[in-house]
Write a structure and sequence with these properties.
With about 190 residues, this protein is of the alpha/beta class. It contains 4 helices and 7 strands.
Length: about 190
């Protein structure tokens, strides 16, 4: 019996360790979690050298001379594991400088991103009809989040224990948010 308990304990530890924060412990230890984008945006140059972990959604990616890349991010507060929270209000935009080429397909607009980096100043760019002051981070670690999809049964079936009472046809399983997609079923009449 003790062997079974040991195996269950090992499985529990492995499963918990796989659900940790996406930014390494060493980098998180050196960062300042209380330093908000709203505060830094007022005068980014005053915070040079400070390390932060921010996230949000990718707006655009720009390739720089010498093989570097720059990512424009629409900020969102971070939640569990460092994932950006879509429903939370944004504090603005920031730029991330990576000293390597980042493939625009992997870093395409709309994808969620979490970045650990060091503040190195500001960049002013036009945004609409105004000049926008972007805090600029030199990246130390970047995590691009995968999208999780769910698939509907090929027939209209609703189970409130599986889908929940408020979102028929939408499964919220284990804390992940799934995007609704209509899939073509070749043997099903429309």
């Amino acid at each position: 019996m003790s062997r079974v308990k040991f195996l269950l304990l090992v499985l529990l530890v492995v499963s918990i360790s796989g659900c940790g924060h996406v930014i390494s412990k060493e980098i998180r230890k050196d960062s300042n979690p209380s330093l908000a984008l709203r505060q830094v945006s007022q005068n980014p140059n005053a915070y040079q050298g400070k390390k932060v972990i921010w996230g949000g959604a990718i707006i655009n990616i720009f390739q720089q001379e010498g093989g570097a890349s720059q990512i424009e991010v629409y900020q969102r507060p971070l939640g569990w594991r460092g994932a950006p929270i879509d429903t939370a209000p944004s504090e603005g935009r920031f730029l991330v400088l990576a000293d390597q080429y980042l493939d625009p397909y992997l870093y395409q607009a709309g994808k969620k991103i979490t970045v650990a980096g060091e503040l190195i100043g500001e960049t002013i760019r036009p945004l609409g009809e105004m000049d926008y002051r972007y805090p600029l981070l030199s990246s130390k670690q970047i995590h691009v989040w995968s999208e999780y999809h769910y698939y509907r049964y090929p027939y209209d079936y609703y189970d409130p224990w599986l889908y929940g009472p408020y979102y028929p046809g939408l499964w919220w399983g284990v804390g992940f948010h799934y995007r609704h997609h209509h899939h073509h079923h070749p043997h099903r009449r429309r």
